[in-house]
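Model: You mentioned two targets. I'll fold them one after the other.
Researcher: Yes, keep them separate.
Model: Target one:
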Amino acid sequence: MSDTVSADDWVGGQELTTDNGMNGSVSGGLYVDASPAPVANFTSNVTSGISPLTVQFNDTSTNDPTSWYWEFGDGETSTDQNPKHTYYTAGYYTVKLNATNAGGSDVEEKMGASP
């Protein structure tokens, strides 16, 4: 007699009891693919202004990143998901976001206008 075991009940190489009360063992393997790497992206509340200029950056990356590394172009960095950063000197700044999860990482960079 055959019985179907749901994925929730599957435990590789261990004994289990099926819905009809029969005992059995499971052997073989189960392939679980890693989550896809993030696709990094972000927005900011402003892209230009007068210094000192405080900018709120917002992570809009897809595929559920679990860590973030921001480079603000002025030597400062952050690991917050949605950091706020103040620029004190006029100039053009390239902002980079490296978003990472178990599947890998991706970098997005954008150039903003001068504060």
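Model: Target two:
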Amino acid sequence: MAAPTSDPSKTWSAGRPPWQVAVDAIAGGWPDDSGTLALLRDLATTDTYAGVREAAVGAITGGWPDDSGTLALLRDLATTDTHAGVREVAVQASTRHHAKDRQQASE
């Protein structure tokens, strides 16, 4: 058995990084638990690894797109996260959120 590594990118599961698998499992396994969204928000804003933050943003926008705090979180991450990849994911999700709002307003 291989020793654990401090770099999460060194271990991959079915072509997906382990942090993505873990975040997806949390979001998909406990979507109705009140602590799930809070945990994902915490991961999106405070985890030291950008891949985890990106995965958490994706999970939040996929599972809780209409939550009152989602758009504010996306705006914050799009402008303040230290990693370009996280900012990009947040901008893309925010853009999709605005497009959905405009479509609903025109119906």
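Researcher: Noted. Anything on target two?
Model: The chain has one domain: 17-26+34-106.
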